[in-house]
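Q: Got a minute? One more chain.
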Amino acid sequence: MESGDIPVLTRLSDSDHAIPSADEDIRGRKVTDRSGNELGKVGDLIIDEDEHKVRFLVLEHGGFLGVGKEKSYIPVDAVAGVSEDQVRIDRTRDQVVDAPEYDPELVQQDEYYDRLYAHYDYPPFWGPGYVYPRWPFPRSE
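A: Always. Here it is, folded:
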């Protein structure tokens, strides 16, 4: 991705966009890894302003009573299922823990995106042949 081609990514909570229905809004739901281990909760969604698509989940984890919470980006491609109260990703706890650190100063930089997608082993959304995952995902029971 060249610096002039970086898409505008915005937190859903900071935008004028809205989720069509409350049932489809996954913010606040707990996030589990593929083995069912709880990782944290979806704090926000990062959306592509140009294409009106969700690109990342913001995973909030750690801290005590909301103090000291850490935030990690998880590509939307990792979502394997959504239920009424949780979002399951197809990666392990270790992969999430070892992901490139979230840093607001780096979020708009191509090397952060490259490292993040390489870490999770997904093709980047700006690459040739990228297919956007189905969103919203069908509920898993």
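A: Helices lie at 93-97, 110-120.
Q: Perfect, thanks.
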